[in-house]
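Worked example 3 (structure in, sequence out).
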C-alpha cells in the first residue's frame, strides 16, 4: 500500500526576499540514533557520523552559527524528546535554521516529518538544511523535495516487502510477463497462459531467424495477437493504457526477459536519491535476485541466450530521433477541428515538384472521427508562424520597456508593501503550537495564497518574468533557425485549420495574461506616464 502524505502546493523556496543580506543564522543542529533507512550502523556510529557531517557543513558555511545540538540518543523512533524541545525553541524564535543530515532521521513517520518541515518550518521562514540530501529550503524547491522523499520512503517499504516475499520463494509483484498468468495463493503462483504462450514462442523463433523487431511487431499485429496491455485488461480488468497495435519496444521487452526460461527475476533496477533527485539505475545481471526453476519455462535457456546475442549484435536505429531531427515541429501541429496530432510528410504537386505538407489523418485511424482529411503546405504555415512569433517578441519587448517606470511608481511600492504585510501577519501566527490541525491548515492555505500573490507580483514586473525573459532573448523571428529543442522551448502547440489559418499557443501564456491586464490599462490611459500619474493621485 503506497505511503499517503498530504502535501499542499508550496510554491518554491521558503526564503524571504532579503535572505542573502542576512549575515548569520542561529542554527539548531539535530542528530538522532534512529533512521528508517538504517541497515548497518549501530546507534553510536550513526550519531558520530551525523555529528561529523554537521560540523563539516558548519565549517564550510560560516553564516550558520550553531546555537545548540539536540541529540535523541534512543534508537526507538517513538522517543523524540529532543526533537520536541527543538520545536519549542523554534516556536519561541530562538533559532533561524535547522540543520540535519537527512529528513529520514526526524520523526517516527514520513508523514509527520513532511508535516513539520512543510507546515511548520516552511511558512515561518525557518531555514531547513539536510546535508546528505543536498537540500536547502532557501535555495531548493521544498515541494519537490518532500514529494521525492515520500516516494523514496514508499520505495523503501516496498523493497522490504519484496525481500520478505522473495525469501519465501514468492513473487514480489502481481504483474507477470506476457505469456503467464498470476494466480494469487496458488502453487505455483505463475502459470502458463495457454492463449498467449504460443505467440511468445513464435517471437523467439523469429528472433533466431534474424527477423527485426519492427517486422516482428508488424507480424504480431497482422495475425491478431493480443498485446500485453490488451491481455491484462482481459485477465484482470486493469485500466491499462496501450495501443492495440504491437510496437517494437514491446517486442524487445519480451525477448530480453529471462523469466521465460523458468527463473523468477527481480531487482533489475534500483532507485538512488542523489543530490536531492531520484535516479533509477540498471543493476548488473550478477546482482539480480533470481529464483531458479521457479515456474514452467516457455523456452529453453539456449534459445534465450541466442536471441539476446543476436539482438546485441544488431544495431537498432532510432527512427523517431532521426525523424525529429529532420522535422523539429514533429507532434507540435494539432488539428484545430478535431484536436488530433497532424502528420508531416512530402507530397507531389501537379507540376511534379515535391513539397512538405501537414496533414490531418484522424479519419484514417479513428473511423468515428468526423474530421475529413485535409492538408496545408508546410512553408506557408512556417511563414505565418514566424509572423505570430514576431508579434509575441514585439509585445514582450514593449512590456520590458515599461517595467522600470512601473516598478518605480508609488503605486507599485504601496501594493508591494500591502502584500508583504499580509504575508508577515499570516506567518507570525503559524508558529503557535496550540493551534488545532484544522486551524493550522486553514492558516497555512491562507499563507500560501498570500505568498503566491506576493511572488507573482514581484516576478511579473521584472526580467525574471519567464515570458519576458524568453521572448526578449530570442532574436529576429524572420531569421531564426528552428531546431527541436528550441521549438519545445517556445511553443506549446500550433492549431491548424482547413483554410490555412493557425492559432499559436506559446509557453508561459499565464505570465503574459497576468501583465496584459495592467498593460491594457496603460494603453487605455494613453501611456505609462499618464497611468502612473493617475494611480499616484
Amino acid at each position: 500500500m503506497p505511503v499517503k502524505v498530504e502535501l499542499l502546493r508550496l510554491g518554491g523556496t521558503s526564503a524571504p526576499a532579503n535572505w542573502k543580506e542576512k549575515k548569520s543564522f542561529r542554527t539548531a543542529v539535530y542528530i538522532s540514533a534512529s533512521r528508517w533507512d538504517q541497515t548497518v550502523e549501530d546507534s553510536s556510529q550513526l550519531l558520530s557520523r551525523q555529528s561529523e557531517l554537521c560540523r563539516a557543513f558548519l565549517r564550510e558555511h560560516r553564516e550558520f552559527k550553531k546555537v545548540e545540538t539536540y541529540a535523541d540518543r534512543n534508537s526507538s523512533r517513538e522517543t523524540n524528546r529532543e526533537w520536541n524541545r527543538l520545536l519549542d525553541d523554534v516556536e519561541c524564535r530562538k533559532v533561524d535554521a535547522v540543520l540535519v543530515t537527512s529528513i529520514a532521521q526526524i520523526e517516527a513517520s514520513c508523514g509527520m516529518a513532511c508535516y513539520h518541515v512543510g507546515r511548520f518550518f516552511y511558512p515561518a521562514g525557518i531555514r531547513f538544511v539536510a546535508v546528505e540530501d543536498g537540500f536547502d529550503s532557501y535555495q531548493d524547491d521544498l515541494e519537490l523535495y518532500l514529494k521525492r522523499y515520500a516516494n523514496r520512503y514508499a520505495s523503501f517499504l516496498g523493497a522490504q516487502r519484496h525481500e520478505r516475499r522473495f525469501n519465501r520463494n514468492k513473487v514480489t509483484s502481481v504483474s507477470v510477463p506476457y505469456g503467464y498468468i498470476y494466480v494469487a495463493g496458488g502453487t505455483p503462483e505463475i502459470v502458463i497462459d495457454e492463449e498467449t504462450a504460443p505467440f511468445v514462442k513464435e517471437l523467439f523463433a523469429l528472433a533466431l531467424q534474424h527477423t527485426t523487431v519492427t517486422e516482428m511487431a508488424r507480424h504480431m499485429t497482422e495475425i491478431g495477437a493480443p498485446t500485453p496491455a490488451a491481455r491484462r485488461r482481459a485477465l484482470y480488468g486493469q485500466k491499462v493504457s496501450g495501443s492495440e497495435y504491437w510496437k517494437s519496444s514491446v517486442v524487445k521487452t519480451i525477448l530480453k526477459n529471462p523469466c521465460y526460461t523458468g527463473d523468477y527475476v527481480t531487482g533489475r533496477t534500483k532507485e538512488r536519491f542523489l543530490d536531492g533527485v531520484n535516479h533509477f539505475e540498471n543493476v548488473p545481471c550478477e546482482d539480480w535476485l533470481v529464483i531458479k526453476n521457479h515456474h514452467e519455462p516457455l523456452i529453453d535457456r539456449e534459445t534465450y541466450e541466442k536471441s539476446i546475442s543476436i539482438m546485441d549484435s544488431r544495431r537498432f536505429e532510432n527512427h523517431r530521433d532521426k525523424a525529429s531531427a529532420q522535422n523539429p515541429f514533429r507532434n507540435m501541429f494539432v488539428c484545430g477541428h478535431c484536436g488530433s496530432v497532424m502528420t508531416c510528410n512530402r507530397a507531389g504537386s501537379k507540376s511534379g515538384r515535391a513539397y512538405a505538407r501537414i496533414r490531418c489523418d484522424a479519419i484514417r485511424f479513428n473511423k468515428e472521427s468526423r474530421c475529413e482529411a485535409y492538408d496545408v503546405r508546410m512553408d506557408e504555415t512556417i511563414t505565418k508562424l514566424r509572423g505570430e512569433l514576431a508579434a509575441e517578441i514585439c509585445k514582450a519587448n514593449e512590456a520590458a520597456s515599461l517595467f522600470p517606470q512601473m516598478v518605480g511608481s508609488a503605486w507599485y511600492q504601496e501594493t508591494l508593501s500591502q502584500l508583504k504585510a499580509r504575508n508577515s501577519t499570516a506567518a507570525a501566527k503559524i508558529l503557535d503550537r496550540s493551534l488545532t490541525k484544522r486551524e493550522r491548515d486553514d492558516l497555512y492555505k491562507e499563507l500560501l495564497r498570500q505568498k503566491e500573490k506576493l511572488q507573482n507580483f514581484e516576478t511579473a514586473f521584472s526580467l525574471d518574468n519567464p515570458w519576458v525573459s524568453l521572448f526578449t532573448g530570442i532574436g529576429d523571428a524572420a531569421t531564426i533557425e528552428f531546431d527541436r529543442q528550441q521549438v519545445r522551448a517556445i511553443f506549446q502547440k500550433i492549431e491548424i485549420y482547413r483554410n490555412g489559418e493557425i492559432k499559436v499557443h506559446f509557453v508561459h501564456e499565464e505570465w503574459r495574461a497576468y501583465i496584459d491586464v495592467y498593460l491594457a490599462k496603460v494603453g487605455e490611459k494613453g501611456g505609462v506616464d499618464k497611468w502612473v500619474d493617475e494611480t499616484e493621485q
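Notes: Residues 156 and 485 are 36 Å apart (CA to CA). Confidence is low (pLDDT under 50) at residues 1-11, 316-325.
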